[in-house]
Amino acid sequence: MNVQRPESWHEALHRLQRDGLPHALATVVTSAGSTPREPGARMVITDDDVFDTLGGGTFEFQVIDSARERLASRALGMSLEAFALGGRSGQCCGGFVNVLLEIFPGSAATLAIFGAGHVGTELVRLAAPLPWQVIWHDSRDSAFTDWAEAQPRLTCRHATDLQAAVAALPAGSHALVLTHDHAEDRELVDALLRRDDMASIGLIGSKSKWASFRSRLTEAGHAATALARVRCPIGVASGANGEKTKGGNKTPYAIALAAMAELLPLVSTHERADQRGLDPGELRALVGQHPS
User: Fold this and answer.
1) Model confidence over 248-279: pLDDT tens digits?
2) For the region Disordered, what residue ranges are annotated (predicted)?
């Protein structure tokens, strides 16, 4: 019988950072007296799992609780936690441990791309190096390229029920609609507008296409303020005065590149303090004192 080996902290850290999932890294940085583990011991913590151990017992549960509180509140960056193994931790070891907690937020945004045609493929390629989760949809069989399956942070969905596909998107997603069929495009925009928690909505096409869509969507009950949320056309270069220019390069790569350039300023990034690590004075004070 094959018994699966538990995932080590460094294997879990690599996987979670590759896949853009929130997690915390806990590291024992200093210790004195009798302690479960030595400095340098590490453990990775997520909302629902832990990888490796700092020694077990109440002390470890307190580290996990502290890490999950910071993950839930999105308290990004580093913090140093002090544990007296006999005081705060209720253990009889009698030593003390300082643990460095590093909180990683995961992906900065979710990008939903509807359409696996030439422009959609180039969009997925351009998004690959960015710290985003990408959900790629298409209603056609065998629409996705072979290399897509191996891409980190990319999910391919064969979406025949467009309403359900939109309903399944995480709140705050950025959506780009560029399917092979205008009827699908219109149904998707209608469904996206009925959700009021999408971060942005972009639609490929001409001004005349959007004029036709806008008329039909107005008849469907969407107000002008809601329709103003839709960017159409996407992937059109801007001139020096910020207005859309006529003509230009209309190859799939160029359209995708321009669409990504439009999208980047709309994607909020995780803010963190403008420093690398803990303040030196704070660090000296913390590691130089035994916790009470």
Assistant:
1) 678 999 999 999 999 999 986 544 444 445 56
2) 272-292
Say which DSSP state 20 is in: T
**How far apart (Å, rounded) are the C-alpha atoms in residues 205 and 288?**
63
**Which residues, at least 6 apart from 179, have a Cβ–Cβ distance to it below 8 Å?**
114, 115, 117, 138, 139, 185, 188
Is the peptide bond preceding residue 233 cis, with omega within 30 degrees of 0? yes
Q: At 11, give phi and psi (nearest 5°).
A: -65, -45
Confidence tier at 291 by pLDDT (50, 70, 90): very low
Look up residue 244 and give its two tokens. Answer: 């859309």
Q: How many other C-beta atoms lie within 10 A of the C-beta of residue 110?
A: 21
- CA nearest neighbour of 138 among 153, 116, 120, 118: 116
Tell me the β-bridge partners of 185.
none
Delimit the CATH 3.40.50.720 region(s) of the chain: 109-266
pTM beyond 0.85: the answer is: no
CATH superfamily of 109-266: NAD(P)-binding Rossmann-like Domain (3.40.50.720)
